[in-house]
Amino acid sequence: MDSDFGIPRELSELQKLRSLYQPELPPCLQGTTVRVEFGDATTAADVADSHTISRSFPRTYGQPLAHFLRATAKVPDAHIITEHPAMRVGIVFCGRQSPGGHNVIWGLNSALKIHNPNSTLLGFLGGSEGLFAQKTLEITDDVLSTYKNQGGYDLLGRTKDQIRTTEQVNAALTTCKDLKLDGLVIIGGVTSNTDAAQLAETFAEAKCPTKVVGVPVTLNGDLKNQFVETNVGFDTICKVNSQLISNVCTDALSAEKYYYFIRLMGRKASHVALECTLQSHPNMVILGEEVAASKLTLFDLTKQICDAVQARAEQDKYHGVILLPEGLIESIPEVYALLKEIHGLLRQGVASNNISSQLSPWASALFEFLPPFIKKQLLLYPESDDSAQLSQIETEKLLAHLVEAEMSKRLKEGTYKGKKFNAICHFFGYQARGSVPSKFDCDYAYAMMTVKRWAQSPGATSIGKPAIHPATVDLKGKAYELLRQNAVKFLMDDLYRNPGPLQFEGPGADAKPLTLCVEDQDYMGRIKELQEYLDKVRTIVKPGCSQEVLKAALSVMASVTDVLSTMSSTSLNSQTPL
Amino acid sequence: MDSDFGIPRELSELQKLRSLYQPELPPCLQGTTVRVEFGDATTAADVADSHTISRSFPRTYGQPLAHFLRATAKVPDAHIITEHPAMRVGIVFCGRQSPGGHNVIWGLNSALKIHNPNSTLLGFLGGSEGLFAQKTLEITDDVLSTYKNQGGYDLLGRTKDQIRTTEQVNAALTTCKDLKLDGLVIIGGVTSNTDAAQLAETFAEAKCPTKVVGVPVTLNGDLKNQFVETNVGFDTICKVNSQLISNVCTDALSAEKYYYFIRLMGRKASHVALECTLQSHPNMVILGEEVAASKLTLFDLTKQICDAVQARAEQDKYHGVILLPEGLIESIPEVYALLKEIHGLLRQGVASNNISSQLSPWASALFEFLPPFIKKQLLLYPESDDSAQLSQIETEKLLAHLVEAEMSKRLKEGTYKGKKFNAICHFFGYQARGSVPSKFDCDYAYAMMTVKRWAQSPGATSIGKPAIHPATVDLKGKAYELLRQNAVKFLMDDLYRNPGPLQFEGPGADAKPLTLCVEDQDYMGRIKELQEYLDKVRTIVKPGCSQEVLKAALSVMASVTDVLSTMSSTSLNSQTPL
């Protein structure tokens, strides 16, 4: 299995140039002196879950926020660390490969060696299986040379995506003890970071000195909160997909005879579909979050698309591009219910060709209504995270099929008088995740060890074991608002935008994800800003100031405190998870 | 239909930069003086067809080759044209959109206006239908501004791909007469250029003064011969697809658990698959030409892939990437025979659900053996060029299905002892053809009016009307030889190469197609070189030279002439079409 891992690769000219690119570090991570300010205790994303989580994570819950400071920052009580004993750290790829993974390893190796040249970084070969089997490769600058700024996870490989069963956790513990690791870094998505959080607690309980660190690297863009504004890989994935979507838009506009249905990555969350829509301006996007929130049925979705097709036909337009995330199928309430029944039966050991006869009458009726190819795909065994095998379910073909049938019906009935509806379907799944990472992802991944306390602040599911919630598209957020504002224009006016292929020089090379630009990010920056205002007031209103100033300040601050208290108690009750 | 054509587009930053790029003209097309050397009469690619072709094209066959010369060229009998009366030219997009189409229009407009500012270029809106309906847009630099160096055909659009029936040809003739066109430029692939050749003959017969010019712009890379080394669009298509293939290779190498089956564009010819293989080094490629030449059956192909999977499993490798062109399905002899039967029945009006019962026993046996999804796709009505609806036939899924079944069988029988075989299928079809064109295609398309006599030298089918042969991959050519030399290494050693995303600056931006670089091109250049040698001999051996020199020259030239005469007569009989 591991024969090919870690060997030097033959690089193309472009790859060679990219391998020479040196990512920039944020000021707070430059130099060998580390300055940390410890802040408030971390809490759960949803206050209602804090009790459950603190009970499940008695040793790791509620640790203080660590804020890394630049050399010029004036924070009197900052911890200044100048001594760095040699450390032994292990690193492992878990979960689906995403652009930027190699740079996390490179950045960590550089940081370890800068702080103490005697530190050691061990990469586990073959993902979590390599971790259990103690198969390691010592990371050196030499080993990294043909992997710097390159895509894929092929430096170390990956296998199974979980460290969860008692056997797996014990194997990880044994490895960390045997190899005398000070730290274990797990690079992965939602599931792997949930595992990392659990592992940290288990290690603490077992008094194992190895610190567990989760690094959010995933395609889906769903590992983010107020401290981690996006995850590594998302920018590249969206850039590569946007290029292809834009090409298809140009194609649609040139031939004017096809509707393209494009399924994108994105399981519980539709961030990729939203970002690509803001980048490429296709005619329509169906977000899983919208469908779930409005409880739209398959029939509703079909009608919605057909009405759009009809409205466009009235303007003599017979082409269009429609995006949807692969997770959409699970967001449709009746399909989700059907999938739950199927998965339940499969887990009971019912053979897939006997499932349909054992479904409830309602689920059976829906199942029989679906075309054969989808039936077959819905009968696939669920994945380890309980979701359906989303990459295998051709939701784009299902919708195209239903829309085609409905448009033919309208044509026959005379309610639609346009030309025949033609659909072409695409799944943009695996072709982006091995991409050479964008500059953004190179830089971000290289500097990624900043978030090492992040995995200790998981959200929770309402029943059972706490787990990290994938951050879904915030239907009250600015990115979604931007989409809604433009939805009608995008639908009717073909305002297709073409960001072009991923560039490393010139326009677009330094572009950030649009959703990141429009969302209110820099949470910590704004907290700092607020503290500066408070400090200013304190400086102005001190012994010696006039009675007028004091009275004005008192009156204003009393009402400010009042308003904020009221707002806080309201928002606690109706908080949307961040 | 034409409401959106020709309107200014909103460009992204990268597109704006691209729109400012000025393609370079070859020296022979620079300036306002045109120098042409007329050469030998053009002949058919296959000498055996020359009689048929000359009979079908009595007015346009056998015109002299026109060789454009640079200002510094010393050719005594060159025609030097300095007077350029104002011309009226029409231009139309036919066939599938390919990157670079807009630059053909831009380049032609620039050339017309440089030679005479009073010349007019009219674009037909909506492809051949616009040509028949006389819907035009006058091309100006202003109209072109947001289309320069951009992908798609959306400046003018396209509709039906043919100008062939008497009605269509007459409509085209009327348009050219009504609009008083001196020239009609048809931008398209094999079919459109066949139509262009036929139209030129018909116009000549009807004494219509409009000259018809075909410009080879197609995805497939199959419009080439010794004078046209490649067609516009091919470079971009291969670059975009190679990027995606390389990403998938990286993916395969990272997870080590999937075989990816990727279907590419390429109907009668597998140039795209060959070029992408040389660019990305996937493990295997199946070229239609190889399959047809070796008469490989579905069973042979399945066995070939399974043996490869098994050989890799013995090296503990359970991943791989396999490319195939969409035309492969028609290259498999027994499937081709089946398709012919199906298409015959469909043309007789037999409903698709009645076809299977009316097939010959042999065809019926094959049909029943195939999985349902392929059956359905094979039953689709053939396209206007008589081929199956190749973009709709998922040959990659068929092969993955057959390989999976065979590997399971081998596993059960114990002849294969490795892990379960897992396949993921992709069709890289429509996502590349709307791409922003590469620098190569921008330059090449802009300079494309050099080949205006090209359409008058068509190959011929053996029966019926002459048509342009798509140039297939030459199994004796250097590009194929390079592939064969590396095939085993590519298969076993995962020498994946990643040219990266299409760049416009830095490494790779100026890369040419590899097949173009390795093939013996520059045919005309080498003919010139030969002529220079002959001239040198003439200069050396002239009255006044010594007897020894004269004798040596005579003796050498006698044997040279002898050898070449023998070689020529042999190669005439066994010539591979160029």
Automatic annotation (TrEMBL), chains A, B:
Entry keyword Kinase: yes
Signal peptide: none
Gene Ontology BP terms: photosynthesis; response to glucose
Pfam families in alphabetical order: PFK (PF00365)
Domain Phosphofructokinase: start-end pairs: 88-446
Pathway info: Carbohydrate degradation; glycolysis; D-glyceraldehyde 3-phosphate and glycerone phosphate from D-glucose: step 3/4
GO MF term set: 6-phosphofructokinase activity; ATP binding; diphosphate-fructose-6-phosphate 1-phosphotransferase activity; metal ion binding
Cellular location(s): Cytoplasm
The entry's keywords: Allosteric enzyme, Cytoplasm, Glycolysis, Kinase, Magnesium, Metal-binding, Transferase
Origin superkingdom: Eukaryota
Regulation: Allosterically activated by fructose 2,6-bisphosphate.
Record-linked InterPro entries: PfpB_PPi_PFK, Phosphofructokinase_dom, PKF_sf
GO cellular component: cytosol
Quaternary context: Tetramer of two alpha (regulatory) and two beta (catalytic) chains.
Annotated PANTHER family: PYROPHOSPHATE--FRUCTOSE 6-PHOSPHATE 1-PHOSPHOTRANSFERASE (PTHR43650), PYROPHOSPHATE--FRUCTOSE 6-PHOSPHATE 1-PHOSPHOTRANSFERASE SUBUNIT ALPHA 1 (PTHR43650:SF17)
Function, as annotated: Regulatory subunit of pyrophosphate--fructose 6-phosphate 1-phosphotransferase.
Protein name: Pyrophosphate--fructose 6-phosphate 1-phosphotransferase subunit alpha
Protein species of origin: Hevea brasiliensis (Para rubber tree)
